[in-house]
Amino acid sequence: MNRFARWCAAALPVLLAHPAMALDRPVVWRDEDTGCAYLLTPQGGITPRHRRDGTLDCPDVAAGTGVVENMGRDIARGLDALQREVERLRERYNNRP
Q: What range does the domain containing 79 cover?
């Protein structure tokens, strides 16, 4: 029984890692017209490649353009607009006859 338990303990990590090993790594492809980099998956998916700072991996995009900061500002602006709309609807609901 002890030998069987050791065999199961050794085989379990291999079996659990098998689905992760089956995934192929995406391939980097650069568009000749724009120079932008894209990730191509073996399943046929495509997505733009980003640098570590969050900017697109394109030659015309300067490093450190603040994509993350701009995104945070846009989200805050959207939340403010949503809050104003909820307040407007609440006042409209409370003031109905």
A: 24-94
The answer to whether residue 34 sits within a structural domain is: yes
Q: Phi first, then psi: give them for residue 69, nearest 5 degrees.
A: -65, -40
Establish if 19 belongs to a structural domain.
no
Residue 90 has what pLDDT?
92
Residue 64 is predicted with a pLDDT of 58
pLDDT at residue 88, as a whole number: 92
DSSP secondary structure letters along 19-54: HHHHSPPPEEEE-TTT--EEEE-TTS-EEE-B-TTS
| Centroid of chain to Cα 2 | 45
| 18 in any annotated domain | no
The predicted structure's pLDDT at residue 4? 78
**Per DSSP, what are the bridge partners of residue 39?**
28, 47
